[in-house]
What does this fold into?
Amino acid sequence: MRVLGICGSPRPQGNTAYALHYALDILQGLGLETEYISLAERTIHPCDGCFRCRSGPCPHQDDMPAILDALRRCDGLILASPVYMGMVTGHMKVMMDRTVCLRVGGQFALTGKVGAGIACGGFRNGGQELTLQNMQTYFLQQNMLALADGPGFSHSGATIVGKAQDDELGLRTVRNLAEHLARTLALVRGSGV
It folds into this structure.
């Protein structure tokens, strides 16, 4: 099974990247294949609602095709974003919008895949829950299964505050999320769903 991690931070080596790599390392240790994409290193044009993707390729020439291919190949998806004004970053939102092409022709290419989120903020209550709700809404719009971080926390996802490597509680939620994702993927893929 393959888990794709997409980092929406404009800082390629920041706290969000650290937290996402931490989760992916845990998943690798559990025997899953992982892939990492940083949106900071990609050029993605905003969707302009032309709907050309309903009948052919998107007219924008950018880095989105490789991201779409990675999304199609994965079984599980972790989105990670710092909190920007109580929501995901613009980088993440533009990427989400451009995946509308995965919902055309009555087909939802991400159906049945398992999604989970990580949000990083400057304060413990710094908008992480709303940012995770942005991600949860995205998963549901794509007909995916949306996970919380699971027992014993079971919030909307994993949350980091401040410097990621120093946030012991936050990293526990990231570990919990990764382990919950691995167990859920085993259940879902084991049942042939």
About this structure: The longest helix spans residues 168-190. Residues 2-190 form a domain with the Rossmann fold fold (CATH 3.40.50.360).
